[in-house]
Amino acid sequence: MKLVLFDCDGTLVDSQHVIVAAMTRAFARADLVLPPREAVLGIVGLSLVEAMRRLGEDDPRFPAERLAELYREAFRELRAEQDFFEPLFPGVRGVIDKLAARDDVVLGIATGKSQRGVAMVLGHHGLDGFFSTIQTADDAPSKPHPAMVLQAMAATGAEPEDTVLIGDTSFDMVMARAAGARAIGVTWGYHTTELLRQSGAERLVSDADELMRAIDEVWEAVP
Ligand SMILES: [Mg+2]
């Protein structure tokens, strides 16, 4: 059995607009200056408190937990105020459908989102029931800790060499390799190709067709 694990933000869905909007609101309410957009997008994928700590450059006086709470509040408000949704990246739906149709593959998710956040995204896009295991910030330490991948493998019975993580950030690549799994980086997300390569991506793909090919090729290659 092969396990294909997807990151969510920046890999399946483009969530940058709502994330930046919620960050802007959270920092304003804390009377703090929002770091540059690039820095904000650079932490997408981490669990919320960990993400805030990084934005505060690990200064122990930085109010990371308070900001995480303000962010959650802002995210809820934005969802209620606007008809916003996080669109799937082009071709992603086809990749999921093709993989789901195979009987040698199970699908999973490993994300810094909450279970509730993932459920909303999947429900919106009609993807309920496609993923056998959903690992979130509610269930494990933040990426790049390998726990989410280890738990997903345990839940599905997949071996590390039969598991591939598909993600858009260095956190995903480091997490996958630390768990002994394979790692494919997508270049349509929030980290640079350079950073993905440096952090352990075995393959880099820039569209859905390339991704489908890379998934099969990575299993044929020696780890
Ligand atoms: Mg991501």
Automatic annotation (TrEMBL):
UniProt KW keywords: Hydrolase
Swiss-Prot/TrEMBL GO biological process terms: DNA repair
GO molecular function: phosphoglycolate phosphatase activity
Domain of life: Bacteria
InterPro entries: HAD-like_hydrolase_sf, HAD-like_sf, HAD-SF_hydro_IA, HAD_2, HAD_sf, PGP-like_dom2
Gene Ontology cellular component annotations, sorted alphabetically: cytosol
Claim: Nucleotide-binding is one of the keywords in the record: no
Protein name: HAD-superfamily hydrolase, subfamily IA, variant 1
Source species: Ancylobacter novellus (strain ATCC 8093 / DSM 506 / JCM 20403 / CCM 1077 / IAM 12100 / NBRC 12443 / NCIMB 10456)
